[in-house]
Amino acid sequence: MLSSFLTLVSVLVVEFSVTPCSGFVLLRRPSARPSSRAGLKMQLQSVQPLEREIQRVEEDEANAAAGRKVKHVLTLIRHGHSVWNQDNIFTGWVDVPLAKDGEAEAREAGQIMKAADIKPDKVYVSVLKRAIQTTWIALEEMDRMWLPVECNWRLNERHYGGLSGLNKIETVQKHGEEQVHIWRRSYDIPPPPVDKHSQYWPGHDERYKLVPEDELPLSESLKLTKDRFMVAWQGNIVPDLMAGKRLLVSAHGNSLRALVMHLDDISKEVIPSLNIPTGVPLVYYLDKQLKPLRHPDAIEPLSGQYLGDQEKIKARIGAVKAQTGAK
Amino acid sequence: MVVKTLVLVRHGESQWNQENRFTGWTDVPLNETGKNEAKAAGEVLKEKGYSFDIAFTSVLKRAVHTTWNILEELDLHYIPVINSWRLNERHYGALQGLNKAETAAKHGDEQVLVWRRSYDVPPPPLEKADKRWPGNDKMYAHLPREVLPFTECLKDTVERVLPFWFDHIAPELMRDKKVLVAAHGNSLRGLVKHLDGMTEDAVLKLNIPTGVPLVYELDEELKPIKHYYLMDEAELKKKMDAVAQQGKAK
């Protein structure tokens, strides 16, 4: 009985964005849903082949005036709904799988990239399965299952320290909205750390056995996330770009924030609330200095181009916020 | 002495197995049966407590899919997966895409048997202009033209698999890594022939059943101590006989 009532409530919440008052708090992230068949068709119709987009970028007034040319193409993709997203839990490094609709988002992203002629030579991904599953599903759609996929922990989501595994609403009720807001949205204040006995300390996980213990986080701010991400950018990704490889970077909300912050020189005041929608390929057109050329359809403060139905994407960028809105 | 573990898995049924067509380097996907076989391989490996540090597979999606399915079952999404054309299935030359029964009806069972089951007689070669030639496939654009086959006999396949064994797979085993190789009937024959020191005649009779993990325990010189399939004997025999039946004209 109770479970079917909860199902009804959750349907109401998802379909109609109803926020139930205190009691049953099942606030779901709105609009991060895969398209219907008609919706997908529209998405694919909005997509132009890569060579045409490169032309558009180079013909754009500012770029043309400066004589800048596109030398490298870098595509970013943020994985979709994980099983913990549904329950609104601070995930971080916890290795939860994609939810069914997250899988559908990955398929859609793959189809969009295929329609856009995005043909990467290699994929960089974190060591977390929600991003790896996204990668595998997208590569299957793109018919590029033979690509080298390099997993690197430095692309992981931000580590949420002592908040890992906690429900976001509960955390707000416990610590207050303001404190949680600071932990989530400040640039350099990390959440409370875990200790080395915690199940959430990465030192217990086999996949990090080749990482020196001192480098494994107990908790991370966005700044710390960026600092460790940038090591992979400089040491792995840049050399591959310079070698002429077209890359796909498949990662998470905060590791991608770190990347775009670097590419577009976004301030630390702005970056914590920048929302990169899930499952929407984000293409960067870089010159030979690895500086982005602004795409005519770019949405501030990014210079990259989201692929797909532009109106739908703009609506989603506004909607990815508010996961702790316990009003 | 640390016993080194090498697990070989031959991918399961593809769409073209169902259609009884010569596949070779054609990049056909697994069908539902094949996907289930991959899943089952992962499940039995999980059940028996196997884990891996690295996986090697070909560039053909039926093997890649098998690899991913096994890793998914074992929760090992994050281990390095190395794709190499050298683990590809044997190239079937001008027979690729043709129906096996029709080919047998046309050329006779015996000729087809020679092409399929001799050690050093390759099927008829492709022309350079044929879109089936790997040189016309962007996937192989970075490879020197001279390694791309127009056709292969088993001898050719073995010869191009072994360099990969020596230079990539063996070093991981020497470092005590637990290795998974998910590949194809003939590329795995190449590895097994080398590991077990089989004669040409013996390897021709070897039928590695699909979807059944074949475990090799190796010593410090990578000589096999023993090998075994992770499946009971009766079921195993049934599977092996089924493979031997393929390709006969009806």
TrEMBL record, chain A:
Site (Transition state stabilizer): 252
Family indicated by similarity: Belongs to the phosphoglycerate mutase family. BPG-dependent PGAM subfamily.
Keywords: Glycolysis, Isomerase, Signal
Keyword presence, Signal: yes
Ligand binding (substrate): 78-85, 91-92, 130, 157-160, 168, 184-185, 253-254
Taxonomic lineage of the native organism: Eukaryota, Sar, Alveolata, Colpodellida, Vitrellaceae
Group of enzyme by EC: isomerase
Family annotation (CDD domains): HP_PGM_like
NCBIfam families, alphabetized: pgm_1 (TIGR01258), PRK14115.1 (NF010713)
Catalytic site: 79 (tele-phosphohistidine intermediate), 157 (proton donor/acceptor)
Keyword Signal appears in the UniProt entry: yes
Reactions mediated catalytically: (2R)-2-phosphoglycerate = (2R)-3-phosphoglycerate
EC number: 5.4.2.11
Protein name: phosphoglycerate mutase (2,3-diphosphoglycerate-dependent)
TrEMBL record, chain B:
Alphabetical list of SMART domains matching this protein: PGAM
Pfam family membership, one: His_Phos_1
Record-stated family: Belongs to the phosphoglycerate mutase family. BPG-dependent PGAM subfamily.
EC number in record: 5.4.2.11
PANTHER family, per the entry: PHOSPHOGLYCERATE MUTASE (PTHR11931)
Keyword terms of this UniProt record: Glycolysis, Isomerase
Residues annotated as catalytic: 11 (tele-phosphohistidine intermediate), 89 (proton donor/acceptor)
Record-linked CDD domains: HP_PGM_like
PROSITE patterns, alphabetized: PG_MUTASE (PS00175)
InterPro entries the UniProt entry points to: His_Pase_superF_clade-1, His_PPase_superfam, PG/BPGM_mutase_AS, Phosphogly_mut1
Protein known as: Phosphoglycerate mutase
Provenance organism: Vitrella brassicaformis (strain CCMP3155)
GO terms of molecular function: phosphoglycerate mutase activity
HAMAP family in UniProt: PGAM_GpmA
EC category: isomerase
